[in-house]
Structures are given as structure tokens and as C-alpha cells.
Amino acid sequence: MSGIHEYFKRTFSDIEDFLNKCDIEQFDIKIDRYLKSLEIIADYETGKRKERATLLLNKYRKTSQYLLSEI
Fold first, then answer.
1. What is the value of pTM for the model shown?
2. Of 7, 51, 61, 66, which is most buried by a Cβ count within 10 Å?
3. How sure is the predictor about 14, in pLDDT bands with cuts at 50, 70 and 90?
4. Domain count, the chain
5. Is the pLDDT of residue 16 over 90?
6. Segment 55-59 mean pLDDT
7. Phi then psi dihedrals of residue 28, to 5 deg
8. For 40-64, what is the mean pLDDT?
9. Is position 52 within any domain?
10. If you average pLDDT over residues 32-59, what whole number do you get?
11. Closest CA to 48 of 2, 5, 12
């Protein structure tokens, strides 16, 4: 599936693991790629990969929303 970063072609963990293993230099592009990859997996795959991607997306969104409300 195009658009998914190569990191996600194997078992994937959390955003911290992705940030450490991703070779993209620019932080905002790295985050964007992480989120888009998770969205593709959550939208088009099934089973445990879909569940994991959905969980990680929800976790990221909840944390982001909390951090923005603290500003």
C-alpha cells in the first residue's frame, strides 16, 4: 500500500519508536508521515493491525488535544 512508511511494513510500536527509527530529518514531516501511515492502516486494513493503528491514532489525538488545551 503506497503512502505507508516502511516502518509500518513490520510490527509497529508507538510514536517514540517510530521517531527513533525513522530516517526523515524534519520533525513535522516525520509526525505527518506517522499519522498518515496510521490513518491508511486504520482505514484499509483489518484485524490486529487496524486495531493497533486505531488505538495509536486515538492516543495521539487525545494527547494532542490535551496539550493544546493547556496552552
1. 0.80
2. 7
3. confident
4. 1
5. no
6. 93
7. -65, -35
8. 94
9. yes
10. 94
11. 12
CA distance 51 to 53: 6
Q: In 3D, which of 19, 22, 17, 20 has the Cα closest to residue 6?
A: 22
User: By residue range, what is the domain housing residue 41?
Assistant: 6-69
How far is 41 from 51, CA to CA, in rounded Å? 9
User: Residue 71 — very low, low, confident or very high, per pLDDT cuts 50/70/90?
Assistant: confident
Sign of the dihedral through C-alpha 43, 7, 35, 70: positive
48 is a domain residue: yes
Between the CA of residue 67 and those of 53, 62, 63, 71, what are the distances in Å? Answer: 21, 9, 6, 7
User: Judging by beta carbons within 10 Å of its beta carbon (0-12, 13-18, 19+), is residue 38 exposed, middle or buried?
Assistant: buried
> Does a structural domain hold residue 1?
no
Q: What is the rounded average pLDDT for all residues in the chain?
A: 88
10 phi and psi angles, rounded to 5 deg = -120, -170
